[in-house]
Design brief:
Length: 442
């Protein structure tokens, strides 16, 4: 991916908060989001996060100074249609990002007019950045797969296909919600592994509720049914990334997943962060994609020189937990773990290419989950299933509490950012959800 002046780490914005230490939304980021003023009934509109503000693109459209060639994209944004913009050719998306960067940069002639088009993020209500057309969840975190595999198959944690094919399953798009939406503990069937074969399962609230730390890639341009996407074209068909919490009912999952895989244990709710961080914003953080010595190399259709040179992305991932008791005492969330997306076993380009390799038709707005992103070290697990070793080693929390799995009232927050030493941060904002008690009846 080529760099331009919008990536210059020395470039600043006339929105002062964009330069604040630890700010996720620097001038080098400029993620897309869909919002309206909290408490209003105004139409949802598209905005760009900058500092602690949002540039309202419906209000900004009439401002002079926008490139005439970008009129169709600017008109679509003013009408709240992000899909039409991310579906445009990559060169158009790059030009649009550069125009917005110029408009928000220090010394911009558009500053005076655009200052009145800012909305404080604290005063905004967020929605999903675009309509999620379909959802596939992959399993690219080899450290997660290995740790979980050891819990159930100590002698054979990774199945033979793992290092050859990106494993995935078809999720449920209808239960994907935006950050801040509460999550109700699901009901379902469970049965202990030690129960006799003829014993009936129980039906009731999930007792082993978990989270999964993931990223989600949003498809920009789809492909026609029957037409694969070569890996050399896959990057251009991705719009950007969001944070994804794939909430998981581990006890339901253990009973139902054989022989066809995840079902009700996975589709009662999945939470996305509201800001779509573009692939262009992440360009400076691309790193080589490598496999450990002795591991098989990808098959030719999943391999390219560009993917080897810069297929991975250096993104720090974090999990934070605030219990109801902590909240009542006025205590901040505590960090449970930290990992990095560069440790993923498959790249985003490989996921898209493999998904379409049989002719499956992807569409603008489709979501590709990465699977749980755990690190190689102890304490870098991306789920409580790993951190508590299947519930056998509860985590100690501030105030004397412990957790093996999530309790009602817990607020779980995912965070992520890319940042080079001394440079601006390209962050994702929060991906949060609070656990509510299960319904009284099914």
């Amino acid at each position: 991916m080529s760099l331009d002046k919008s990536h210059n780490a020395q470039r600043t914005s006339w929105v002062a908060s964009a330069q604040a230490a630890g700010c996720d939304f620097s001038l080098q980021n400029l993620p897309w989001g869909r919002f309206r003023r909290a408490g209003s009934t105004e139409p949802w509109r598209i905005g760009v996060a900058i500092g602690d503000q949002i540039l309202d693109l419906a209000a900004a459209r009439p401002v002079a100074g926008w490139p005439a060639a970008l009129a169709p994209q600017l008109d679509a944004l003013a009408q709240g249609d992000l899909a039409a913009v991310i579906a445009a050719p990559k060169a158009t998306r790059v030009a649009l990002r550069l125009a917005i960067s110029d408009a928000l940069a220090t010394g911009s002639p558009q500053q005076a007019a655009l200052a009145g088009c800012l909305v404080a993020q604290a005063a905004a209500e967020m929605a999903l950045p675009c309509t999620i057309r379909d959802y596939t969840d992959f399993y690219t975190g080899i450290h997660h797969a290995t740790t979980v595999g050891k819990l159930f198959r100590p002698d054979n944690p990774l199945l033979p296909n793992y290092k050859w094919v990106p494993i995935g399953y078809h999720g449920r798009a209808s239960s994907i919600v935006v950050s801040g939406t509460p999550l109700r503990r699901p009901l379902g069937q469970t049965r202990a592994p030690t129960s006799p074969a003829d014993e009936a399962p129980a039906f009731g609230p999930c007792q082993r509720l978990d989270y999964e730390l993931e990223l989600g890639a949003i498809v920009a341009q789809g492909n026609a049914l029957g037409e694969p996407v070569p890996i050399t074209a896959a990057e251009d068909r991705l719009a950007g990334l969001v944070l994804l919490n794939d909430w998981s009912a581990r006890d339901l999952q253990a009973w139902e997943y054989q022989p066809l895989g995840p079902f009700l244990a996975k589709n009662f709710g999945s939470t996305l962060s509201p800001w779509l961080v573009t692939m262009e914003a992440l360009a400076p953080y691309r790193v080589p994609f490598t496999r450990p010595a002795g591991d098989p190399q990808p098959l030719p259709y999943l391999d390219s020189a560009a993917n080897r040179a810069a297929g991975a992305i250096d993104i720090t991932l974090e999990v934070w937990l605030q219990t109801a008791a902590m909240r009542q005492r006025g205590e901040a969330a505590t960090r449970l773990s930290s990992s990095n997306f560069r440790d993923a076993y498959w790249t985003l380009a490989q996921l898209l290419t493999h998904h379409a390799s049989n002719g499956c038709n992807l569409a603008t707005g489709d979501l590709l989950g990465t699977g749980t992103q755990s690190g190689p070290e102890a304490g870098q697990g991306g789920s409580l299933l790993e951190l508590s070793m299947g519930g056998k080693q509860p985590l100690a929390l501030p105030g004397g509490e412990t957790r093996s799995f999530l309790a009602d009232g817990d607020t779980l927050t995912l965070r992520a950012f890319a940042q080079q030493a001394g440079g601006p941060r390209v962050g994702f904002g929060a991906c949060s959800g609070t656990v509510l008690p299960a319904p009284l009846t099914a």
